[in-house]
Write a structure and sequence with these properties.
There is one protein chain. The protein is an all-alpha fold. The protein has a single domain, classed as Arc Repressor Mutant, subunit A, CATH 1.10.10. The protein is 77% helix and 0% strand. The N and C termini lie far apart (31 Å). One of its GO terms (molecular function) is DNA-binding transcription factor activity. InterPro entries: LysR_HTH_N (IPR000847), WH-like_DNA-bd_sf (IPR036388), WH_DNA-bd_sf (IPR036390).
């Protein structure tokens, strides 16, 4: 189970991915390897009990549904 700190950090990272539009751009922006991003998002999805749920939201938001909100 994730600690509150880990969960909050992973959610912030998820928001960065949405803002940047991709894992690689978010990794570059955060100054961390994209493999770390991938592992942390996988951990977040597992904690939410729905694998691939975060990826679906990134795709949904990058399809302009979340832009301008």
């Amino acid at each position: 189970m994730l600690s509150t700190h880990e969960y909050a950090n992973d959610l912030i990272l998820f928001a960065l991915i949405v803002d940047c539009g991709s894992f690689s751009k978010a990794a570059e922006s955060a100054g961390i390897p994209s493999s770390v991003i991938s592992k942390r998002i996988g951990r977040l999805e597992k904690s939410l009990g729905n694998p691939q749920s975060c990826i679906g939201w990134v795709r949904y938001c990058n399809g302009s549904a979340c832009h301008g909100v």
